[in-house]
Amino acid sequence: MTTKNCEEVWAKCLEIIQENLQKAAFNTWFAPIVPVELKDNQLTIQVPSTFFYEYLEEHYIELMAMTLHRVIGPNAKLDYRVVVSSDQNIGKSVTVKMPSNDTPKNVPNIPKRPRLGEGESPNPYAYPGYTPIQIDPHLNPEYTFDNFVEGECNRLARAAGFAVAGNPAGTSFNPLFIYGGSGLGKTHLANAIGLEVKKNFPDKVVLYVDANKFLTQYMQATRDNNQTDFIHFYQMIDVLILDDVQYFADKEGTQKVFFQIFNYLHQHQKQLILTSDKAPVDLNGMEERLLSRFKWGLAADLQEPDFETRIKILKRKTYKDGIEIKEEILEYIASHVTNNVRELEGTLISLLAQATLNKKEITLELAKGMIDKLVKNTQREISIDYIQKVVCNYFSMSVDVLSSKTRKREIVQARQIAMYFAKNMTKCSLAVIGNAIGNKDHATVLHACKTVNNLIETDKNFKHDLDEIEKRLKM
Ligand code: ADP
Ligand code: MG
Question: Is the pTM of this model over 0.70?
Answer without folding.
Answer: no
